[in-house]
Design a protein that fits this description.
This protein is α/β, with parallel strands linked by helices and about 250 residues long. It is about 35% helix and about 15% strand. It has helices at about 15-30, 35-45, 50-60, 70-85, 170-175, 205-210, 215-220, 230-240; strands at about 110-115, 125-130, 135, 150-155, 180-185, 190-195, 225. A hairpin with a 4-residue loop joins strand 5 (about 180-185) and strand 6 (about 190-195). It binds zinc ion (ZN) (2 copies). The site of one zinc ion has 8 residues, from loops.
């Protein structure tokens, strides 16, 4: 089990206080658009049960139940609380999990992975949790969702304007190889997750660079891959993989 799972039974209600502090700060920052004023008022009027249900849905990625307008605020508050918990967790208390693809601290799925530079960790790949920001090591050329080492491929993206008309295929291949951010796809589970390379872009930051590369998500969707954002994907694969021995 993760050491601080973000499930309902154990979830610290302090996240709701953080949520209202965030709303206070938004309102104090200056004039809001009418839509945002309405949204803030709507969140303030929500009762505890509705907020907790939304938190459950966001954490479990049950998209059909998520209220998309309030989800960024709910997630932001939860991230503050769980990042605090993770920052106070001793490394020696963090368990090794059997389930691939989830955070050993909170059990959530990663937002992206980073290949580090520097020191004894140079070239090591870490996945960063989407909730508590914990980074944990996953060897490279392995699916961060299902643990498979087969059928891994990398996809880079450039806009039309970035591609010189006279570029050769070889130059194109070299350019794709040097891309600071790619999508790492897996044929075994049909998902992808973004990977950033610090030696190409030292300031790579999983949360913001993920948002800044939404076009890559569209292209990956067109290519038939879905975003590795569901624990169910990992569990389904695991059951299937042990089928003959079960
Ligand atoms: Zn986590
Ligand atoms: Zn996979």
């Amino acid at each position: 089990m993760p050491i601080a799972p973000a499930s309902t039974d154990t979830r610290d209600p302090v996240w709701r206080d953080v949520l209202f502090m965030l709303l206070d700060n938004i309102e104090a920052a200056g004039a809001l658009t009418p839509q945002l004023t309405q949204l803030v008022a709507r969140i303030r009027a929500m009762n505890v049960d509705v907020l907790e249900t939304q938190a459950d849905a966001v954490i479990a990625l049950r998209f059909a139940e998520i209220d998309p307008a309030i989800a960024p605020f709910v997630m932001a508050a939860l991230q503050v609380v769980w990042t605090d918990i993770a920052s106070r967790t001793a490394l020696s208390d963090v368990p090794y999990l059997d389930t691939p693809g989830v955070c050993p601290v909170c059990g959530s799925v990663p937002v992206a992975s980073v290949v580090r530079v520097g020191g004894s960790y140079d070239g090591y790949r870490y996945v960063q949790c989407g909730l508590c920001a914990t980074e944990h090591h996953v060897v490279r050329a392995k699916c961060t969702n299902c643990d498979s080492t087969k059928g891994i491929a990398y996809h880079a993206m450039r806009t039309e304007d970035d591609i010189p008309a006279d570029e050769t295929e070889e130059e194109q291949a070299q350019c794709a190889k040097n891309a600071p951010l790619k999508a790492e796809s897996c044929d075994e589970c049909g998902t992808y997750r973004k990977i950033g390379y610090q030696d190409k872009a030292y300031d790579f930051e999983p949360y913001s660079d993920d948002l800044a590369s939404l076009t890559l998500d569209l292209l990956m969707g067109d290519a038939g891959f879905r975003r590795a954002a569901s624990v169910a994907v990992a569990r389904t694969y695991r059951r299937r993989s042990i089928g003959p021995r079960a």
